[in-house]
Amino acid sequence: MNKVVLVTGAGRGIGAATAKLLAKQGYRVCVNYRTKADSAQQVVADIKAQGGKAFAFAADVSQESAVLELFQAIHEQYGTVTHLVNNAGILFTQSTFAGLSVERFNKVLITNVTSCFLCCREAIKQMPNGGAIVNVSSAASRIGAPGEYIDYAASKGAMDSLTKGLSLELAERNIRVNAVRPGFIDTDMHADGGEPNRVQRLSPQIPLKRGGTATEVANSIAWLLSDEASYVTGTFIDIAGGK
């Protein structure tokens, strides 16, 4: 089987680690990014240096026209998309709920949820004989992120619902839909929230007493995409050190 995977938001962090790992496992990888062209091209260069196949494509996956262009580019480059990792997402500066603006709330929902909807919709059009989707949710969907990121948590809760519903709708087509829920992972996203050392601050509260790595999340994503997880759908893997 010619395995072709789209990883959204793959220019850094969990997305980049996932793209590199999947390339090592024989996938042809589309490294999607929105603005950070240099980092996305570096991910592609790293993959090719290891003998893998990848190309980068800029697209704001919260916009329908951009998603259609993205899938057309993948089809021209590698053929039918067989696997999808919805990882694109944004996080704004920590805020109480009362401090959230409607513009911020809507931006988070559109970026994190609409992008997942659009990419899932286009991917399943190309998966007539099975396939696999992994949505990158967050432990915030369970915890709620009070005083920090309730908008982000709400968007990930919506992603969880989408994951469950879509998994049931597509089961008879042998398209598996699962999600990972990372928490307290050492990535640049915490800097976006205004606290680069957030994981270090919270580590004493985590049962495993440390933050996780992007590679640890990527390993779970790769397993859910693989044939080793062929009887797994509608499932959530929490990667949060026991929190």
Written overview of the protein:
This protein is an alpha/beta fold and 243 residues long. It has a single domain (4-239), classed as Rossmann fold (3-Layer(aba) Sandwich), CATH 3.40.50. It contains nine helices and seven strands; from the N terminus they run βαβαβαβαβααβαααβ. It has helices spanning 13-24, 37-49, 64-77, 102-125, 140-143, 150-170, 189-192, 198-202, 214-225, and strands spanning 4-7, 28-33, 53-58, 83-86, 131-136, 175-182, 236-239. The chain has a seven-stranded parallel β-sheet, with helices on both faces. Helix 4 (102-125) links the parallel strand 4 (83-86) and strand 5. Helix 1 crosses helix 9 (214-225). The radius of gyration is 17 Å and the shape is globular. The mean pLDDT is 93.
Major sheet characteristics: 7 strands, parallel
CATH topology title: Rossmann fold
Strand content: 15-25%
The tally of strands reads: 7
Category from helices, strands and their pairing: alpha/beta
- In the CATH hierarchy, the architecture is 3-Layer(aba) Sandwich
Strand order of the largest sheet: 3-2-1-4-5-6-7
**Over all CA atoms, what is the radius of gyration?**
17 Å
Mean pLDDT across all residues, rounded? 93
Overall geometry comes to globular
Q: CATH first level: which class?
A: Alpha Beta
Helix amount, in percent?
A: 40-55%
